[in-house]
Amino acid sequence: MAVDMELDGGGDGKGKAPPQISLSGLFLACMVAGGVQYGWALQLSLLTPYVQTLGIPHALTSVMWLCGPIAGLIVQPCVGLYSDKCTSSLGRRRPFILTGCIIICISVIVIGFSSDIGYALGDTTEDCKGPRYHAAAAFILGFWLLDFSNNTVQGPARALMADLSGRHGPSAANAIFCSWMALGNILGYSSGSTNDWHKSWNCIACGRRWFPFLMTRACCEACANLKAAFLVAVVFLGLSTAVTMVFAREVALDPVAAAKRNEGEASGLLAVFKGMKNLPVGMPSVLIVTGLTWLSWFPFILFDTDWMGREIYHGRPDGSPAEVTAFQEGVRQGAFGLLLNSIVLGISSFLIEPMCRRLGARAVWVMSSAVVCVAMAAVSVLSAWSLGDFGGSVQDAARAPAEEGGVRASALALFVFLGLPFAVLCSVPFAVTAQLAASRGGGQGLCTGVLNISIVVPQMAIALGAGPWDELFGEGNIPAFAMASVFAAAAAAAGVVLLPKVSVRSVSMAGGH
């Protein structure tokens, strides 16, 4: 997971303006953002629970997510650099978008068919039971490839919007980009919340299945549902990529101009590293508060649907058929909660700028962290309430009847409630950074790049530590959420003391995982 750095566009490298495009054309040219986000929503909602059915223990699932911050730290800056000076006849951005989308489709197919691949390589267990380590290896390979290719696409896609915005301006381009991401989130989480995808591929009228390869000896109903959902993602991504390739008419970069640009890039990169000592006053404080804020959020981002399946629905991915069914139902309800969260996020995004103008960005950021502190504590309390007096490991509670009504409704309400502070997370830190760079110097690119580091490093820490931390206490996801509440309180306190007062003129949502 990483921040998209808005790369400098607006020209073809020869002093000519890019071809003018209508607003509807700009909207269609950005469609690939929706296709990528659709798959990413499925990844966030379904894959942490699913990998545990392959035999990967809960304590190690967070480590799998290291690919996100690593890709954000390495892949996006490198792809952004090379796309700036690409001389392909397709333009600067489209070659990377097309290549990345092809790799995304391959990686999604590998993930969806990982059980069948593992069975072909020698896994002996069937019907989604027991550890299947060949399948797990194929899954993790596809998972890492998916995250790296996602980051390959998203940076050039946003830069393409800046290149093409023309008379419409970057604000319109950013709004269109975020609209497609919101639509992709809603569609993706809707897909993750249903259990009927594989059934929809059946021919009801003729009484037979059109695609019998979905359910196999190695792939049970839950696996087949995942497979079908990701195949739909491939179709949607293919369609959105084709539309972007057709409507995003780029002008090829002149090789001579590219060569001159390359001469300055090396010194420019060195200047970025040397320039870190010249950050504007107040920026180090923003980095500290940003790091603490992401430490409070990433446990929930990693384990939200897994939490619903384990603590709220008392299921387990490797238990009896009834326990597996309960776990899968909880995961689907968690995906539905993320759908509701995305809707609230979209609505709240229009409220952030007025709030910042009235209360100040620092106050909005601090209040958001305080809300997250309360919410993460509520997640821990709700988990304890759901588990009752069972004590010990959360897995012991799987054998008891799951509470219904209030607990589950409260869990869904928490998903909805977190939509507003998540909107703050996706906008205010970037707006504060941009304003500091504009008013106190230091450079937008440098400040955004350093802010990106303050986001991905905490994600790495949580990815490495959350699973073992939970395992240490034997309490499922509760310890990580309790620690998240502590980090949120620290972020709020640090925000009061450290954050500079800035006047935010405009706030826009940042794209990302």
Automatic annotation (TrEMBL):
Alphabetized InterPro entries for the sequence: MFS_trans_sf (IPR036259)
Domain of life of the organism encoding this protein: Eukaryota
Protein name: Sucrose transport protein SUT3
Function field: Responsible for the transport of sucrose into the cell, with the concomitant uptake of protons (symport system). May also transport other glucosides.
Gene Ontology CC terms, in alphabetical order: plasma membrane
CDD domains: MFS_SLC45_SUC
Location in or out of the cell: Cell membrane
Molecular-function annotations in GO: sucrose:proton symporter activity
Family: Belongs to the glycoside-pentoside-hexuronide (GPH) cation symporter transporter (TC 2.A.2.4) family.
Transmembrane spans: 21-42, 62-83, 95-113, 133-150, 228-248, 281-303, 364-387, 407-434, 446-466, 478-499
